[in-house]
Amino acid sequence: EWLRTQATRSTVVRRSVNRFMPGERLDDALAAARALQASGMSTILTHLGENVRNWLLGLEGREADLSRLTA
């Protein structure tokens, strides 16, 4: 947790990863995908799920993401 906190506060780290990981929320990813699409670039969104502690939480997250993408 300490490393995550330090990395997310670091301007250098944020600038380095922003192109490939525009944020931690689905809305951040969708905004970045729309901006890239407007400039003629295709995108792929992935949800890694390394912080999911059990299958039920993973399923809930999946359902929430799918409902937002199809809205």
Describe this structure in words.
It is a single chain. This protein is an all-alpha fold and 71 residues long. 61% of the residues lie in helices and 0% in strands. It has 4 helices and no strands. The chain has helices at 2-9, 11-17, 26-38, 55-69. The longest helix is centred in the last third of the chain and has 15 residues, at 55-69. The mean pLDDT is 83.
In short:
It is built from four helices and no strands.
Q: What is the β-strand count?
A: 0
The average pLDDT score comes to 83
Task: Give the terminus-to-terminus CA distance.
Answer: 33 Å
Identify low-pLDDT runs. none
Beta content comes to under 5%
Q: Helix/strand/pairing class, anyone? A: mainly alpha
Helix content: 55-70%
Largest sheet: none
Please tell me how large the radius of gyration is: 14 Å
Question: Count of helices?
Answer: 4
User: In sequence order, what are the helices and strands, one letter per element?
Assistant: HHHH
So what's the overall shape?
flat
Q: What key phrases describe this protein's structure?
A:
single chain, mainly alpha, 4 helices
Write the layout of secondary structure elements.
Elements: H1 2-9, H2 11-17, H3 26-38, H4 55-69
